[in-house]
């Protein structure tokens, strides 16, 4: 029996939260002791993960709920709004860190950070990369976009520690380059802002009713070509709601086919595509006769019949 998706989300998020707290305290403490502004910024980034963890813990209780009378298409948009919250939070954190780093560039340089900052950054890279890989596995089990977004938040945290480690070593090798730590903090900022965009943009497209899957039309056409009774499919439309996709299209059958037979063909075809496309949760098929008035892909020629 498959494990409850909510349990998977909560387990992955709680484990991530414990790791985030531990690393955030470590990096901020070591950053203050060694004078590494970049490591402190990286620690603040780790603390921001806690807010996204909380959002996922709360939001998952809603977006995993089944469709009801008030939400006949399900509650997937709660996951969309959770992703938007995560993206906006990352954006704000990134802008704040970037502003502090730019301000520091115009002042007297800090002392060279101690090598303890290097080892703290290395520990963060290793732990957060492992956490990213494990969280992605959990996200794929239940096809959760929010959990996947949070996994990328972990990887961003790992990547953001890399310039910190490089800056500490470079400051020892080239002590005259006083502002390498601030430059590293700016690189961290760029990584955070990139992650924010990659989380926000798909959520924005979803809210604006963009096509749910760019490749779904070709898939449906391919599946339809394997069914002799289906003469044509067109007007294929999809939209995403959280981690799921809703689909509708027109299916053309021979004009002489009985309504009952056409319905049977459409139900079998619906079951087939639902089994083939994991994210797909509902399909609406509009049955039409294969006549000149309805044909789109293969329109009738003036001197030919519709057969």
Automatic annotation (TrEMBL):
InterPro entries from the UniProt entry: Cation_efflux, Cation_efflux_CTD, Cation_efflux_CTD_sf, Cation_efflux_TM, Cation_efflux_TMD_sf, CDF_Transporter
Protein name, entry field: Cation-efflux family protein
The organism of origin for this protein: Photobacterium gaetbulicola Gung47
TM ranges: 81-99, 111-131
Annotated family: Belongs to the cation diffusion facilitator (CDF) transporter (TC 2.A.4) family. FieF subfamily.
Parts forming coiled coils: none
Domain named Cation efflux protein cytoplasmic: residues: 216-290
Gene3D superfamilies named among the record's database cross-references: Cation efflux protein transmembrane domain (1.20.1510.10), Cation efflux protein, cytoplasmic domain (3.30.70.1350)
Membrane topology annotation: Multi-pass membrane protein
GO CC entries: membrane
Principal place of residence: membrane
